[in-house]
Amino acid sequence: MKALTPFIKLIFAEKRDLFLSILAGFIAGITAVGLFSASGYLISHAALTPPIATLMVIVAIVKLLGITSAVSRFGERYYSHRATFTMLSNIRLRVYEKLEPVSNRILNRYTSGDILSRIVGDVDALQNVLLRVVYPPIVMLSVFLATIAFTTLFSIGTAVLIILGLTLSLLVIPALFFLSQRRVNDQIRETRGELSSMFAEYVYGFRELTIHQARQQREQQVRNTIKQYEQQKQKSQSVQMWSDATIGLLSFLVSVTVLFYAGFQVAEGNLAGILLALLLMITLTVFEQITPMATLPYHLQESAHAAKRIESLEEENNRVEPDVDVQFNEALGIQFQDVTLQFADQLRPAIQRVNIQIPSGSKTAIIGASGSGKTTIANVLLKALPYDQGTVKIDGHELSTISEDTLWKNTNVSLQSNHFFVGTVRDNLLVTEETTDDITLQKALHAAELPHLKLDSRVEEKGQNLSGGEKQRLAIARLLLREAPLWVLDEPTTSLDALTEERMLRLLLERAKDATVILISHRLTGLDQMDQIIVVDHGQIIESGTYDELIQKDGYFKQMKALEEQLFMNE
């Protein structure tokens, strides 16, 4: 329940609406009790043929109570829901503010479907904190105390029976059913998160699954998970229905007991017969209002679990160390010292005891076969992956003390898979620099050899209407619009032919001539232009030096170069 504390604070921030909700709820509840008890008294009193003026007064009271109850109930709904919507808005803003700075780390730990389930489904579940957990018990307790105090004026025994019935209905029965429902609800939440992740992967990989004729198998897995989820929901609803039915039965039995007890008191002469209907109606009305309270344990646990899942995302934010006041105005020098990173459940480290010295303003290529650890080194440098051991320094500053915003602001990055947004070519170029004019954007397109693309040309989701080469050249056009002291290029030209690749690399190196450049590649084109080449294999650096130095060695780089030349000759 500790996880709920920050969200409950957000509720109490809406003090005015919360107070008005409680006040309106109390008035609605107590007038409902008064309305039905007055109706019972009116019926009993009318049977004695009193003066018409007396009946008119009672009828007027009944009408006034009815109007007051309806207006108060509307006020309760209005203020409680307004407070809830404001609270949800504040929660969403709070979650976004905490997750946005560490979004890259979260994406590495959780699937997109699970994240979506947490920031949408779990946040929505927190609306029950106010509507079902916080203010209803206060309203119900105040109504019950006022009702019992009123009932004791006529029959202490009836008040005792009501107290016993309320105790069983609000505490004993809900607790018994909650214990049996708790395990089912835990399973529901786990299945819901699994379903969200599975369905997101199914949607994202639909084309590949269809091409490889594996769609039906994956679709069946999704259907089975949906069926499992529905079965668990039905079981949970069944338990809830039995709980409601049991409480309803108990309420009826208490009302019957009150009727017999009051009737006995009337027969004994200890109670006026005219009050019999009044006491019965009080009992029926007050128990009618406790049904929503029976679900309080369920909503409390649901909200607490939702808050805990959101808090587990926010814990990433606590790992961010204070930002050192760093000003990067020139090319950056980088140092890796004994850096090791091992992913969970992996037999060997992704990179192991990596030592790299990258002088300020130098051009460094990190090469190796696919899966050798090249991209992992780049991700460590960009703070996309936390390393386990060693130190990484940029211009003498420990990487962990530099905020991601500061690092990324001073870095020009091209990833293996660049994202393209639905919109126009202009929209996707302005992701880099919002103040750039159309003439500059058009020049960047021409420099990236994309003269056929117009700024208003449409780009579909993930750039599906662009070829692989067009995507990479559009990403290069983005790079040309920014100046930065550090350039990290991860396979920027793998989808281009050899001649175009050579021209694009020359263009990038020319534009970044005063910056520090790190080129990640498994191809060896253009490496003679680099100041140093680092060869990575199985997460370890096995060779390093200039192009000429590595060619003179009979090592891994020379073998890769010879194999690549042989492949080109065969083509």
Can you put this structure into words, describing what you see?
With 571 residues, the protein is α/β, with parallel strands linked by helices. Among the domains are: 89-313, ABC transporter transmembrane region fold (Up-down Bundle), CATH 1.20.1560; 334-410 and 484-570, P-loop containing nucleotide triphosphate hydrolases (Rossmann fold, 3-Layer(aba) Sandwich), CATH 3.40.50. It has helices at residues 5-12, 15-46, 52-99, 103-109, 112-125, 127-151, 156-204, 206-211, 215-267, 276-288, 296-314, 374-381, 404-409, 425-429, 438-447, 468-480, 498-511, 547-552, 556-570, and strands spanning 334-341, 351-358, 363-367, 389-394, 397-398, 411-414, 423-424, 458-459, 486-490, 516-521, 532-537, 540-545. The strands form 3 sheets. Strands 6-9-10-3-11-12 form a 6-stranded mixed beta sheet, sandwiched between helices. The chain has a 4-stranded antiparallel beta sheet with strand order 2-1-4-5, covered by helices on one side. Strands 7-8 form a two-stranded antiparallel sheet. The two termini are 66 Å apart. The mean pLDDT is 83.
Mean pLDDT across every amino acid position: 83
What would CATH call the class of the domain at 89-313?
A: Mainly Alpha
Taken from the alpha-carbon principal axes, the silhouette is: elongated
CATH fold type of the domain at 89-313? ABC transporter transmembrane region fold
Q: So, the CATH homologous superfamily of the domain at 89-313?
A: ABC transporter type 1, transmembrane domain
What is the CATH architecture annotation of the domain at 89-313? Up-down Bundle
Broad structural category: alpha/beta
* Spatial ordering of strands, largest sheet: 6-9-10-3-11-12
Helical amount? 55-70%
Largest β-sheet summary: 6 strands, mixed
Number of helices in the DSSP assignment: 19
Q: Uncertain regions: pLDDT < 50 for 5+ in a row? A: none
- What amount of the residues lies in strands? 5-15%
Query: Between the first and last Cα atoms, what is the distance in angstroms?
Result: 66 Å
